[in-house]
Write a structure and sequence with these properties.
single chain, five-stranded antiparallel β-sheet, binds zinc ion
Amino acid sequence: MHVSDVTDRVLTHLREAGDYPTNPNLNAACVVAFFPGGCPDSAPEGWPHDTVDYEDPHATTICPGCLDSWREDHLVSAPVTVPAGTPLTLRFPWVAAQLAPTTPGDGSPADTDPVPADTSA
Ligand SMILES: [Zn+2]
C-alpha cells in the first residue's frame, strides 16, 4: 500500500477535551487517516514520518477494528473519502483567546485564570 491509497479520513475529538481549555493538543479536533480494510502493521510506503506518527497500528490511525476502542474516549465521525492530496492529519485546536496577563503592583506572578463574576453584591 502506498500513502496515496489512503483515501479516507475521520474527524476525532477527545470526549474530555473541555477539561483542557488551554492545551492545543488535547482539546483539538483532528482529522485522522481511516483504513476501511484495517490499520496496516507498518506505515504505508511514502508515509510522512516527520509530520505524522505511525508508531503502531491503531495508535494514530483508525479502522473498523479499532473504532470502538477509539470511541471510548473520543468522538469519532463517520469516515469520508477525501480528494487526492488531502493531508493525512489536520489539527483544529479550540484554544480560547488568552487575555494578556497583567502584573500586580507587588510584582507577584499574574493570575491568568478566569475570575467568576462576583455575585455577592
Ligand atoms: Zn485500527
